[in-house]
Write a structure and sequence with these properties.
480 residues, binds flavin-adenine dinucleotide, 4-stranded mixed sheet
Length: 480
């Protein structure tokens, strides 16, 4: 397995990254991107650390591998995977680390769908997927996944668009591979991973076969251009003022494929349009389990900071505060119960791969996403307006005004002003800064938007059971 140092070194590979319009010659030397790299290095540090080694690593035939790459076979595998994701995210200041999480979700889905294509079409994709998987696992690589196409007019299919490149497509096939053109949006951790796995974003029709494409390539492949988002890019060093954003960051790119060559052995779907939707869906179902797992430290932090502010402001007896706290706890613990249930009630798929229960995963994701903003409001309410009007670390340390802050910004007796302001700043980061704005949009859109979760729930629900009960209760004969 690689060390965090080796991981960081591996990113100096000539990849074509742009930040605020400027080419970045070395991502490890760029202050904003370096923050994202150091955040991602948590996954490697966990494997190196005594405390987390047993969780972060698994053994197979005498070799050690990152647990992220363990193909889940049982509920226990899924629970341990979830535990690993939760622990890494907690160490990541409530921000998911993602460099192995999302890629392994894609690898699991590729195994299942490659197997299905081979069965139906006599192709040999599974062999390619397995070789790629073994190489990723043995080299302990960091992965990103580019699924979401830029999509143009959302009401139109790929062929109905103003130009043919709103969805990534194959523009040429050669004996050695394919040439692809298009752009994927919002690709997380692409600036700091080693390989990007590309998947279709939706189902395709027969005349859209060129859009049914999946593959993996290194991030320094010729023609691949990474235009990084600068959202939140005014890095603050003060750990006091910004306890989370000073250390943790994730960066997305508009990922442009400017006629990129992909060798045959790295192509996992090439025109088999009937399987594009299946691949998109299977990836998302694994990925939403990752999502609901990595949300848990965030919701726990919301509950914890509400508890701290309640105590520090002397609000424990206030009825409305207790009511808000009860809602926060119910929100967090419902999510935790659903994550556990999705793993315990897993389905056994092809190749002995265990899939978290799709209905439960989508219920959990919907529950998280649709209530998240209300939970932020409860925490802000309990914490008070200092969340956005409080002094900075520099004021606190100032020989001129520090004494006023210590005198006037106390709360309950016995709580230091220092601790009270630290708790307030945590609430600020969780609910009212760029960091929380990012988390809030992530909550709504990442891993598919809310409507996609509802569709999955309706599709997966055992409606026959309920309909039959309704018929029986109403006295309707079964034949009708
Ligand atoms: C922080 C962040 C990180 C992300 N990371 C990744 C990543 O690593 N890899 C990746 O591939 N993707 C990633 N995503 C993308 C994410 O999956 C998408 O944002 C999500 O699928 C929504 O797509 P969109 O952003 O294009 O929004 P849209 O699809 O435009 O959605 C906007 C609204 O339009 C609605 N809508 C869209 N199409 C239709 C339609 N045909 N009919 C009716 N309503 C419609 C949606 O329901 C929604 O309400 C990330 C997103 C975020 C915010």
């Amino acid at each position: 397995m690689r060390t965090s140092k080796q991981y960081i070194e591996s990113l100096r590979d000539g990849r074509e990254v742009y930040f605020k319009g400027q080419r970045v010659p070395d991502v490890t030397a760029h202050a904003e991107i370096r923050l994202a790299i150091d955040h991602a290095a948590i996954d490697f540090e966990m494997a190196e650390s005594k405390e987390h080694h047993a969780l972060a690593v698994y053994e197979e035939e005498g070799n050690e591998f990152s647990r992220y790459f363990k193909l889940p076979r049982t509920s226990e595998d899924l629970l341990l995977r979830s535990q690993l994701i939760q622990t890494a995210t907690a160490l990541g200041g409530t921000l998911v680390v993602l460099i192995k999480e999302i890629g392994s979700d894609a690898l699991f889905a590729l195994h299942l769908v490659a197997h299905a294509i081979d069965q139906h079409k006599g192709t040999a994709y599974l062999d390619r997927v397995r070789k790629f998987y073994e190489s990723v696992r043995s080299h302990d690589l960091a992965l990103s996944v580019a699924q979401t196409d830029v999509k143009g007019d959302r009401s139109k299919s790929p062929l109905e668009q103003e130009h043919p490149d709103f969805y990534l497509r194959i523009v040429r096939e050669t004996p050695d591979g394919i040439i692809v053109r298009g752009a994927k949006a919002h690709t997380s951790v692409s600036v700091n991973s080693n390989e990007v796995i590309v998947l279709p974003t939706r189902a395709m029709k027969a005349d859209e076969a060129a859009y049914a494409v999946a593959f993996a390539i290194p991030l320094n492949t010729k023609g691949l251009k990474l235009i990084a988002s600068s959202y939140g890019a005014h890095h603050q060093d003060s750990n006091f003022d910004f306890p989370l954003a000073s250390k943790h960051r994730m960066i997305e790119t508009l990922t442009v494929f400017d006629d990129v060559f992909v060798p045959n052995e790295r192509v996992f779907l090439q025109g088999e349009w009937e399987f594009a939707g299946e691949l998109a869906k299977t990836f998302v179902e694994f990925h939403r389990f990752t999502a609901i797992s990595y949300k848990l430290p965030l919701v726990d932090a919301l509950v914890g900071s509400a508890l701290l502010m309640m105590e520090y402001n002397g609000l424990e007896r206030a009825k409305h505060v207790q009511e808000k706290l009860a809602r926060l706890i119910s929100y967090a613990e419902t999510l935790r119960a659903l994550v556990r249930l999705a793993a315990l009630d897993c389905e056994s798929g092809a190749l002995g791969i265990a899939l978290p229960r799709t209905l439960i995963v989508n219920m959990a994701k919907l529950h998280f996403a649709t209530n998240f903003h209300q939970m932020l409001a409860y925490v802000q309410d309990i914490a008070g307006g200092l969340v956005v009007t409080g002094p900075s670390e520099a004021d606190f340390e100032s020989p001129d005004v520090g004494k006023y802050i210590r005198k006037y910004l106390g709360g309950r007796a016995g709580v230091t002003v220092d601790d009270r302001l630290k708790a307030i700043n945590l609430v600020k980061e969780l609910t009212a800064t760029d960091f929380s704005g990012y988390q809030a949009v992530l909550a709504i859109h990442a891993e598919g938007s809310i409507e996609a979760e509802k569709l999955a729930m309706v599709r997966e629900h055992d409606s026959l059971r309920c309909k039959q009960l309704a018929k029986q209760l109403a006295g309707i004969a079964d034949a009708h």
